[in-house]
Amino acid sequence: MGSVFRGGSFLEGILSAKISVDGNDSTQTLAAMINKCKFKPQLQAIFLDGIAVAGFNIVDIQKLSKGTRIPVIAVMRKRPNVKTIHAALEKIGKKEKITVLEKAGPIHSAGKIFIQISGISLEKATALLPIVCTRSNIPEALRIAHIIASGITLGESRGNA
């Protein structure tokens, strides 16, 4: 589930695609969804809620940025424990996903959140955050997409977007 916002205050549209749980299709599915959508010409950045979707389906933010020609900013509320994630991937036999995690690059502190970036400088990425984070510490597009997705999957949104 994705939402398209003008800045952080005007909802332009909603996007959706199916991604397999713990699979390897997130990068290409997201790129295809974005490349064929009518909103693409106005997109300035792709914001992700971390780089793992549908469990351990890891988005290659470098490939996503190159494949869409749009900068990617993965946002995290807390700094992830990389060692714990690596251990979990090894335990479930998904060791090959560690390479994709490492390709995402360093995790940067950006005020009260953390980000990983591709196709954009850290300075430009952090300059975008005050524009798109209007009602919380995370971009409004991510907050609304989370509310909609939880409402659809759970029957009611939980409000902890």
Q: How are the strands ordered across the major sheet?
A: 3-6-8-7
The parts where pLDDT drops under 50 for at least 5 residues are none
Euclidean distance between termini CA atoms = 13 Å
Q: CATH homologous superfamily - what is it?
A: archaeoglobus fulgidus dsm 4304 superfamily
The domain count comes to: 1
Question: Strand percentage, roughly?
Answer: 15-25%
- The name of the CATH architecture is 2-Layer Sandwich
Structural class: alpha+beta
Q: Which of globular, elongated, flat, extended, rod-shaped describes the shape?
A: globular
Please report the first level of CATH classification, the CATH class.
Alpha Beta
Strands, total number: 8
Average predicted confidence as pLDDT: 94
Q: Considering DSSP H and I runs of 4 or more, what fraction of the residues is helical?
A: 25-40%
Describe the structure.
The chain is an alpha+beta fold and 161 residues long. It is built from six helices and eight strands. The protein has one domain: archaeoglobus fulgidus dsm 4304 superfamily (archaeoglobus fulgidus dsm 4304 fold), CATH 3.30.2170. The strands form three sheets. It has a four-stranded mixed beta sheet. A two-stranded antiparallel sheet has the order 1-2. Strands 4-5 form a two-stranded antiparallel ribbon. β1 and β2 form a beta hairpin. α1 packs parallel to α2. The longest helix has 15 residues. It is globular and about 45 Å long. The model has no long low-confidence stretch (mean pLDDT 94).
